[in-house]
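Example 3.2
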Amino acid sequence: MSADPSAGTSAGTGTGPGESSCLACALTAGTAPLPGGTLLRTPHWVVEHCVGPLGLGTVVVKPVRHVLHVARLTPEESAELGPLLQRVSDAVTEVTAPQQVYVCLRSHAGAVPGHIHFVVQPARARDLAEHDAYGPALQMAMFRAGRRPAEAEVAAVCDRLRAALDSPAPRPLG
């Protein structure tokens, strides 16, 4: 293991550097409210509905353990990541029918590196029109607007996402 304290070497138990105040770790551990609950947990990754204002059906894919940098992922975490992002993107596509699905890395809490997580966000025509933006500008506009989906809506979309994630094979895009 690296001697670098920011390497994220713990198992996501809340005992490693920075974990005691990490929202991502608290959501995984069940010590912070998570509308819709965990969607999927693999040996190395957790999938949850986003708790921020990026819209209904936006999910987060994050390492189970507290990791601050992609460069610090283990070979096993790295091997699982690509197929998982594809699987999650496929489920988001099936459930939300967007024009596009954005996948982007987020890792800052304030101006300090935090628990890495990949945001898998449906980009729907109505969101683009409402915010008159797309790509990163859409995400910034949604953060500025600050609207979060209702818990009941999140719970319902999470049920549909779980079912889609349980599907055995990706669906062809048309």
